[in-house]
Amino acid sequence: MRTINVYKMQIWIIEALEQSGRIDFVNLHEACSLNNFLAKTTSQKIVCASEAESNKTLLKLDNLANVAHLMIGPEGGWSLNELKLMQDFDNISTVTLGPNILRAETAAATLISQYKLLTS
């Protein structure tokens, strides 16, 4: 796992919150493996954008207001092992963001925008 400059990430979070006019703070948690994250969040609903998903969109999911986490894959997409791992968890729904392959930052903005549009 590569190292992350936590200080720089916290500055980016604060700048994004100020720019968007949010008054709540977003917590930055310690980096962990996908397996550990999924094991810790079994009681929380997760929506995962996946290039392997072709039909299911956010619009087709029930109870979007109960979603605790939105996930996008790494650059290059989810590995077959990661996709298989996610299938083992009942609390994860995979969705498509459309037919195009998106950069990670574009995928994040797209997923958040779709989620906010459908839950507002």
Plain-language structure description:
This protein is an alpha/beta fold and 120 residues long. It is 38% helix and 12% strand. It is built from four helices and three strands, in the order ααββαβα. The protein has helices at 6-20, 34-40, 80-87, 104-119, and strands spanning 45-49, 67-71, 92-95. It has a three-stranded parallel beta sheet with strand order 2-1-3, with helices on one face.
**Cα-atom Rg, whole angstroms?**
15 Å
**How would you write the strand order of the largest sheet?**
2-1-3
Strand-residue fraction? 5-15%
Overall form:
globular
Number of helices: 4
Taking the sheet with the most strands, its summary is: 3 strands, parallel
Helix content: 25-40%
Low-confidence sequence ranges: none
- How many beta strands in the DSSP annotation? 3
Order of SSEs, N→C?
HHEEHEH
Structural class: alpha/beta
Q: What is the first-to-last residue Cα distance?
A: 36 Å
Overall pLDDT score? 89
List descriptors.
single chain; 120 residues; alpha/beta; 3-stranded parallel β-sheet; 4 helices
Give a brief description.
With 120 residues, this protein is of the alpha/beta class. It has four helices and three strands; from the N terminus they run ααββαβα. A three-stranded parallel sheet has the order 2-1-3, covered by helices on one side.
Annotate the secondary structure layout.
Elements: H1 6-20, H2 34-40, E1 45-49, E2 67-71, H3 80-87, E3 92-95, H4 104-119
Parallel strand pairs: 1-2, 1-3
